[in-house]
Structures
1.
Amino acid sequence: MKTFIIGHKCPDTDSIMSALVMANLEKNFCNTNEIIPCRLGNLNKETEYILNYFNIEAPKLIDSVAGADEVILVDHNSFLESAPDISDAKISKVVDHHRIANIETSEPLFYMSEPVGCTCTILYELYRMNNVTIDKTYAGLMLSAIISDSLLFKSPTCTPKDVKAAEELAKIADIDINTYGLEMLKAGTDLSSFTANELINIDCKEFNANGAKFQISQVNTVDIDSVLKSKSEIEMVINSLISEKGLDLFMFVITDILNCNSKAIVLGNKSSVVEKVYNTTIDDNVAFLPGVVSRKKQIVPKITDNI
Ligand code: MG
Ligand code: MG
Ligand code: MG
């Protein structure tokens, strides 16, 4: 029997690490099944840095869950963010930290969700609950995901549970959180080799609310203006996506991870929603969002409620 474990499309560090960490846990429960950690897209630079650091192979790249007897979803639940044929699959488990939307299963399942900053924080609890030993490498992978999702504990999504898990994992992994964490986050801000189209797809999510369709893409940087140098190319790609997919709004959020601010390129017929909810003006398609770093906590709920 084959079990695929997948994180969301445009995988971030948490989606990749959670697939690996969950696969390692599942192997403790059942050694007759074939447990295959998978990914639905390319690795970002930060994730590449981590996998090299710990010398771990990336999950298997797939574009369909056909061939899996069961699928485990990590770091997402929405079918919009999952494999295109996910509605045909048997989902046996979900471990996630997002709002629940656009998911329906035909059978009962194991579902573990908590409003914490990272899926790997929940996986850490699952290891503890099941008395499964965490080795140095897997501790490092989980720690990396927590640092990534919480932006080294600076994101408003970060909870005391995330901090505690990270501290315990850092001890097991024998890693200095701040030194390693900054190196790792900086590796992810090297955007120099990406085309406008690739930039938008590093971390892009799609949403439906009140009959409107919108996408919010996010990149991390230490220099917002260097990303904005490609503004006109980025706008061209966004505008073609808007007409192709019939989107009402597209936000390309460029987040300064050192100063914890963002600027967003905002396009679409519902752009004024952004002006309204952040009480700001969009100047030449760009809105400044002071203090905004978390799409999950500071952007999606506001847009969803007001679009
Ligand atoms: Mg994620
Ligand atoms: Mg996550
Ligand atoms: Mg993320």
2.
Amino acid sequence: MKNYSNIYKPNQRNLVKCAKILRNDGICALPTETVYGLAGNAYSDKTIDKIYKLKKRPRNNPLIVHFDNLQSILKETEYNFLLSKIYKKFSPGPITYVLKLKKNSKISKKLANKNSTIACRVPANRYFRKIIKLCGSPLAAPSANISNNLSPTSSYDVYDEFKKKIKFILEDRKSKIGLESTVINLVGQPKILRPGKISKDELKKIIKKIVNNKSKEILSPGQLKKHYSPGVPVYLNKKNPENKGALLVFGKSNLKGENIFYLSKKGSLSEAAKNLYSKLRLIKKLGYKNISITKIPNKNIGIAINDRLKRASS
Ligand code: TXA
Ligand code: MG
């Protein structure tokens, strides 16, 4: 039996305990509606160093800062005429805005991109926002996984990544969305750096022009090709499992066997997104040597699923 003594239920006492750890430059894993995050005080250089070290994350890959409301984002970033309009529609929620950092901001430069921009998000998860309030400072929180691994969608996934290396993991239900937030760069021409639940089409209703992210310059180093890997080979657009492998099916299938797994039997893309990382983790844990996946429709959140799968398979 595993000893999950560092996983805590989200009651008032534990939220206060968590905020205290964070105020003292400690690291806690917290639930969000997208994936679980590895949170630490965004004002503290020392804490940011700890996060990079724990995650084994390359130093040139900047972190997302989590705020409890729009006002606190405005305090740290330069004015952007699009922000409040998009914010009103989509936040709190699964979207991250890349903005110019104010010169006098106290946010640690160590988590910024080239010292000049930061990614800002207000998560929908109420425990997370409550903890930010209790801390009195924004929280840096990359996904709570070792670099290049799959993001965790439950407190037990976080435990499997870090075991007792983190003192405090806050337990909540499985992440509702299951894929990381949409990242949109609002510095210069708006550009989607990472697809997510909030699609380009939805954003286009508010921002007329969104340019494609085709430039050679990597604006989001986290979008490097090898990423989101379950640790075994992944094959896309398959109808059958490969030798010693499992098949992950979207929709219905006539295939039978213990190596057949489902993302969503009813063919729901949202359900598939929610299940994607946990099924990949499960299949790996069961010891299958590779994972084949059936075709996923490339629309709505299916675009984000295919983005992650392409990276997982490369
Ligand atoms: O849903 C999410 O966004 C989750 C939860 C925990 O909030 N967080 C998350 O963080 O996915 P992370 O660190 O795993 O991914 C952050 C992505 C990376 O691709 C990173 O390169 C990009 O955002 N990013 C962060 N700061 C940036 C910046 N200033 N400019 C451009 N890209 C940035
Ligand atoms: Mg990540």
3.
Amino acid sequence: MKRVILLGPPGAGKGTQAQALQARWGVPQISTGDMLRQAVRDGTALGRRAQGYMNAGEYVPDDVILDMMQERLARPDAARGFVLDGFPRTLAQAEGLDRILERLGVALDAVVDLEVPEEELVRRLSGRLVCPECEAIYQRDTQPPKTPGRCDRCGAELVEREDDRPEAIRRRLEVYRSEAEPLQRRYREQGLLHAVNGMGPGDSTLREIERSVDAETAR
Ligand code: AP5
């Protein structure tokens, strides 16, 4: 059973690593970004509220995110553990998460902070392709699909994300810089934070994450 948060800037590889950990550990990847994009596609009230924030590269308000996560973490599959991808992002969300976990009677095992320099983040995001059907993630130069423009897993047509336009990338990085430090400090003080180098090939990052989490859960 593992309960882990993946922190890191836009493009650090949170989604890529969370999908790999889901397969390795048999616990759900819970991505607030994927949940919000699904709500936008479904045209729900949540999606309509979130869309403007997301396209502009701003954070969706904390109360919206916390309501969504309270419902998601109470579902039966999350009782096996989870990898949280992109949540929490603010101190208020971290405090809200603590309250949700306390009510569920469970605790976090580790918080992994993926570190990647900014010029590499911009390079990665500028060439990202995603599958709108199954959320698989590709990169034109470093992780291309086998058939150009088609998802390896489900065959759907790959798309660029609306928020991977240069001005939205710039704003997402600014917002991340302004919110990340207090969150990192909080988890460092709780002895849960593990910095992991996200610059190497994806499988070496995956091994480093697993080593950090195994060391924490063995204590
Ligand atoms: P979200 O979808 O979570 O976006 P993000 O945090 O900006 O992160 P990304 O998905 O862009 O990057 P990632 O770290 O997952 O990297 P990936 O694996 O894709 O959120 C979107 C929006 O929703 C937010 O801006 C906000 O509006 C809203 N939102 C979501 N959660 C919220 C919250 N909690 N509170 C408020 N608002 C919220 O990889 C990136 C690229 O790099 C890919 O092309 C990939 O193939 C490539 N890559 C990955 N690893 C490597 C590697 N090792 N080497 C080379 N390339 C690699």
4.
Amino acid sequence: MLIDGHGREVNYLRVSVTERCNFRCHYCMPEKPFSWNPKENLLSFDELFKFIKVAIDEGVNKVRITGGEPLLREDLDKFIELIHNYKPDIDLAITTNAFLLANSAKRLKSAGLKRLNISLDSLKPAVAAQIAQKNVLSNVLEGIEKALEVGLNVKINMVPLKGINDGEILDILEFCRQRDITVRYIEYMENSHASSDIQGMHGREILEVIKQKYTIKKVGRQKSSPSFNYEIQENGYIFGLIDPHKHDFCEDCNRIRLTAEGHLIPCLYFDEAQSIAEAVKEDNIDKAADILKDVLANKPKENRWSEEDSEGSSRAFYETGG
Ligand code: SAM
Ligand code: SF4
């Protein structure tokens, strides 16, 4: 079992397999021109898997693959299969924008994938294109339907933004309710990369919109989940709200993050990280395990989004995987 410096059990590893993305979401990607890290800096799937095995042997039982856009990385299904075959009861999930999902959902499911979190910020083609800076909606919707068809468990993530998709909070809720899938509204998290014009919505503003149509009741938060759940009294549908500006979920935070270059990050907000790249390239498993334990010993008590002078994270979401 892995225990951090504040006595929390850490059993959840999020692995970014690439920082590259086929979308340019205004709230995630830099406005200014930028260049990707050279491909040769990426760890291979074998190298990432070496570290994942260490983490599983030490007590991790939940692995989420993210990015950038993870489906851009070739042979992702083979990587999923490696992890699944190593420990079939691992809770294995992907977070994706679903643009490339229609063609890969079946292969991913056969490889051992259990769950998918899919970003869906709008059901209007022009708004979706405005946010992602690309015509994306029909592919995304096709990807969602295909994932459901092959039996993957799907959750939807929406980031409501003032003046952009704030009029679609209820539409997305109904879209998910009709398909019996959960939607989680994520408050926009300030970061120094995203467009300065972006204005996110507070959790209470999101709830106000839903309350115009429905009566809602607080259900609470599952242990270690950042999502606070609410139930709609009229039909029993449960949706989630992720509000990073509170840090009540930090008290039982159970997660660490690995970037595609091998940086092990103890908290999404903080810049501190240690590299496991050398250890896995040298096949030095003991060294990788020591780095993992050291990073956990220094995992911060809570994030800093709630602090008044906070300007947000200086690490981009497409690098850390959100
Ligand atoms: N490309 C995949 C996707 O969009 O689902 C995976 C990576 S993306 C960084 C993971 C999640 O982070 C997405 O649900 C996205 O909406 C969210 N995200 C990105 N930037 C964010 C921000 N500034 N505030 C809140 N959520 C953000
Ligand atoms: Fe790409 Fe996901 Fe970031 Fe959008 S949120 S730019 S899809 S990584």
